[in-house]
Fold these 3 entries.
Entry 1:
Amino acid sequence: QKHHLTLWYSITLVARSVMASASCLGLVVLVAMASAASAQLSSTFYDTSCPNALATIKAGVTAALNTETRMGASLVRLHFHDCFVDGCDGSVLLADTGSFIGEQGAAPNNNSIRGMNVIDNIKTQVEAVCKQTVSCADILAVAARDSVVAVSSTITTVALMHVLMKHMPVVLVSELWFGTNSAHTKQLGGPTWTVLLGRRDSTTASKTNAENDLPPPTFDLQNLTTLFGNKQLSMTDMVALSGAHTIGQSQCRFFRDRIYNETNINTTFATSLRANCPQSGGDSSLAPLDTATPNAFDNSYYTNLMSQKGLLHSDQVLFNGGGADNTVMSFATSAATFNSAFTTAMINMGNIAPKTGTQGQIRLVCSKVNS
């Protein structure tokens, strides 16, 4: 009997070892596939095939932000919602039709995501200079970067012009502003980063995956950590990406429960929001995600969290006695630390399961697959 037990134990150990090896092999294969896809992306992908692509995208983003500054935050969010659902493949841009159900009607997106028309307009401009060369997924990735850089620049530019015109002759102001030293303009914006390019567009989209993979504003820290971890993003990446809430606005329906029912919220802050967000009605009323500097891309989002002034539940859980507290404090203390972590996180997010090579297609119109 003892011999039989020993034999059974040995067989069990061997079986467990085989299963563990298979599991590890599967993980290695998945990581290798993701790395291979990312390795095919390149910052110089369009240098020869469409050398004016980036300039064309930037001009389109600038025009959109000049019309509505909030659009900068919307484009960053659109890129996030694209990458988190089956990878950065432009699937979020596909509009529903009579025979096609995409991601735009999913609960996290419905009557919430914005900017698809801006990407459509930019795509039209890019198509005019390079026919069926630049993917919608890449346009969205570049537009998100350009939005971060431009949003602070646009606001600060206007403010600085007003100050200069009060104290200096118009001619001198003009020379300062439109002269050759463009470095001054660059230094006014948010952080920049090199966008890797070469993504291709999906031919499908999944409403179900959008509802499963996008974090709702009710998520706690554990839910958020797990969801981001599933996308190979660290807690630092998660906290840094959440810092995009330093710009943009949210609808009342997403923060109503927090301002009426939660206790880890600044009382004055909550009271100030209730006037525009009643307990019933006013679902689409807007409030800035960062009340301190709503139109500037900076690190004040994190100082807001430390004062219990996070607008969304999923914002405040980042600083609520949990494992993200130290990262929040680090970013609140140092804008440079936040900027570095944010740009790294955006690159990491942009590398989530891109379609490359012969996968997918280059759409002619971002809102529909090629016929």
Entry 2:
Amino acid sequence: MTGVHENASLLCGKDPVYYTNTIGIVVDWVIFLIGLPEVCLAFYALLRLLKRDKAAPIFVINLLLSDLIQIGITVVFIISRFFDATFRPFARARCIARLFVRLGLTSSLGFMVLISAERYLMVACPVWYHTKNTAMLSSLISLCMWALSLAYSILDYFSIYTTFSLLVFSIICLFPAPFLVVFFTATWKSLNKSMAMRHDMKHKRRVLGVLGLVLGMYIVLFVPFSSRNLYYSLKGDNAEDTEDSVRDLSGVLTSALVYLSPLIDALIYIFLRRDIRDTVEAFPCCKTPLMKLKVFQERLTDSSQTGTALQLS
């Protein structure tokens, strides 16, 4: 069967067609060159603003950590492409790197669900959220999520049944779907019923913005990938040769979408801030231009008020 490239990997056996395809090569470079600085900037700005707001979106921080794992491990695949595919050290490195890819993807899905649940509780149960939802509790939940993701990744790494492994991973990727839809719908209804939120349109847009971004990102990036893998894992390896090109191309395209998810995750940070000025002020290099702009605006306001007063007199 075409679409796989034989190598000297011991446990994971074969490289997926994504590894040698031009689309996969381009996507990996985009993830590394654009995604790495983007996620690092979002992570830095988030930590810096936490010192001022004293509010810790633990789940968003962990989501960015999972993105850093996925982006960082891309370096292994980028470098190994400069060597022969059967070169044993890089073949083994790619095999181990896929464990971290699984870890990053599964933990990312888990924290997407936790972020949606947190936004829902913030609206539906505000008293409990502000009194019982401590940083310690969120940290313990995050540790449990990391432990579950790592346990699954290790089991998947040592799995010798490729088709069964793909089936399990497809089910795991589809598992968050009902939760994300329910949390978005329930939060939207709670916001409409809440008297406090009804007049605070900015806060309402921020809450729905986070949930809408998470749900939209999951539908666009993860659903095609998991649906395609579920279909071919159930169909088995008895496909005709004419279907190989469709199988390979669909695998490359859906994998590329999933691997681009860290570029979208960083946008969640924007919806946690009150406005664009609040976001820009997180970076020290932007404070001086903002101060100069503020002084310039105040001078313009003063001069316009003075001119109006002279005309009236």
Entry 3:
Amino acid sequence: MLFGAAVNADNPRGVASRFLGNIWALFALVFLASYTANLAAFMIAEESYYDLSGINDWRLRDPTSHRPPFRFATVPSGATEENMRMNYPDIAKHMRNYSKSNIDEGIRTLKTFEIDAFIYDATVLQYRVGNDEDCKLKTVGNWYSMTGYGIGLPKGSKWRHRINHRI
């Protein structure tokens, strides 16, 4: 046998029995080694995303503090850029260098590592992450601001009661 038993056990005496016992022990050893190697590789796999803590993350506040500089973008002339420009002018100034014309271009450049982060409306990003066929997108950090959505209807609309009932 490959391994001696810790307790008294009858070892197989025949050649065929010993051969099958050794094959079984070898199979168990290979299976266990393969499982252990896969488990270790899974546990130490390096994530390829930046775990941003939110809008106050140091990489957004001072993107040139490390090399290469942290690259992040948004869609210009939208609510996200306007909000950043008004409340965080330094972040908005750096972000303007990497602005993308639309969300599709922003996500494409994020997937190809041309930018490190894409800042946009959280609801839209959550939808895009959920529908990403490659599963390469992830939203990180805290939401910066919470805004509500409204439904506008003309006065006396026949839809008002149905919509209110659904909500």
